[in-house]
Design brief:
2 copies of one chain form a homodimer. Chain A is mostly helical and 135 residues long. Chain A contains 6 helices and 2 strands. In chain A, strands 1-2 form a two-stranded antiparallel sheet. The longest helix of chain A is centred in the N-terminal third of the chain and has 25 residues. The first copy, chain A, is globular, with a radius of gyration of 17 Å. The relative contact order of chain A is 0.12. The interface between A and B is large, with 49 and 48 residues. The structure holds a DNA duplex (30 and 30 nucleotides).
DNA sequence: TTACGATAGTTTACTATTAAACTAATAAAT
DNA sequence: ATTTATTAGTTTAATAGTAAACTATCGTAA
């Protein structure tokens, strides 16, 4: 069993993600949102509150505030004040937001999928499982 | 075999990297450089010219210019004009820069390694293999 | 041998991001 | 009940990042 080079795995992985993001950024912009706004949009269903989004996406709260503001202005989501806790805002995707999210993720999936295609189906499942454990 | 969700793999992986970066950022700052400056420093040996660095790290050229300027001012690297091509600057790590790079990468490896520890040894190897294939 | 297009790196001028401080609401303790 | 601490989200003030335009050099070609 050879010793694993953590730094190398890190660097490969990081550069992979950055290069995929860079390559799709112009297409995503074409949908009317920025890459980071898409990441926010993509987590709204699972994490409908801004503070959670900030945590899960490792973003500062003010950044989330701003992305949400833009996404709302663009008609991709709307906000409701949580009646059980008046501090909280529940975010809800609009149909347009959901459609745009799907398109954006499809672009990302296409670019990332091109890399993932180097793995066979079983390996892709295995990777998903391992990343689940790491999350 | 269920169809694999590329977007989900993407999201898990992206969130993993961001959370690791966020967790080590304060310690890296303590070394006297920013995270992105560390990434630049870490690629200088393999890619000693700014334009290459920009390509490999998926960063705009002006950003690289700025990071290099700071790294040079901090004494972590120096620049030589390539005598064969007066447009090019060859970057060279100083001993101090090399030491700081090693410390920074060690912090990163430690934080990432802590996540990796959730996997058993066989799973770590499997992950390494899969990510190698994707690089 | 100058003219032209391409490349390396920088500067400028603007936008994006965020730390710090704030308001408002809730929870916990006294 | 009232203080105190905590949490959600926003605003402000300042820094970080970058697109566009620039200088300088190079490679090539008529």
């Amino acid at each position: 069993m050879p010793k694993i080079d953590v730094g190398r795995i890190w660097s490969l992985n990081f550069r992979l993600l950055m290069s995929v993001i860079t390559s799709v950024a112009p297409d995503i912009t074409g949908l009317g949102l920025e890459t980071k706004e898409l990441f926010v949009l993509a987590e709204v269903d699972e994490h409908p509150h801004p503070a959670e989004l900030a945590g899960v996406l490792s973003m500062p709260k003010p950044s989330v505030t701003m992305y949400i503001k833009r996404l709302e202005a663009a008609g991709f989501l709307r906000r409701e004040i949580d009646s059980a806790d008046l501090r909280r805002h529940r975010l809800i995707l609009t149909p347009e937001g959901r459609k745009t999210m799907a398109r954006g993720l499809a672009l990302l999936a296409k670019a990332f999928g091109a890399r993932l295609a180097r793995l066979n189906s079983a390996q892709q499942s295995e990777l998903a499982t391992l990343l689940e454990k790491l999350g």
